[in-house]
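#struct-help
A.M.: can someone run this one for me? Single chain, 205 residues.
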Amino acid sequence: MVVVITDENRAEYKQELAAMHRHRKQVFVDFLKWNIPVVDEIYEIDQFDNSDAVYLVVLDPDSRKHLGSIRLIPSTKPHILESMFPFLCEDAVPVAEDIWEITRLCTAPNAPNPKLVLGQLATGLMEFGLLYGVRKFTFVTHMGALSQVLAFGWDCEPLGLPQKVSGDEIGAMLVNVDTQSLHMCRKKLGTQKPLLRLPTAARAA
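D.P.: on it. Structure tokens below:
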């Protein structure tokens, strides 16, 4: 299952979020060697993990173990592309109420089927966008991983030319949110059923 965790329901998922931050540290700091903040030598948490952040988290339906996750931030709030990598955009960084940023895409090191987890996150993002009125997502990626991103079935376009940063070639991308992309993601995943488990307040609305 893919749960939507917001500031309002975060208390219900304390253990799952702690596991997410542990796995982010293992993936981004221990394995990829990113120079980013670590809390208590265990958790990867930065300044963007604040009340504005929304997380899509894939949990094992039986054990509720964290299998993968992604962080979403409204572009109208401080976010990575605008704060750290605006030079990756040929024009101004896209900012609007209906544009959100994707960051910290992570699969748990012990996930039994990482490809399935990535497919669930990719599909969940399209569902989230259509449900919450998000028209576009932005993200920064290593260009070596771009083919994997495009394999999700997203409709992507570059925001500028890739550039070398600390020896790595990275670029900024824009993802269009539409029903056709959702259909493509669901087709690749092999299901037409909705994946997201929404917060109680959102379900009531």
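A.M.: thanks! Residues 2-200 form a domain with the Aminopeptidase fold (CATH 3.40.630.30).
D.P.: also worth noting: The chain has a mean pLDDT of 92.
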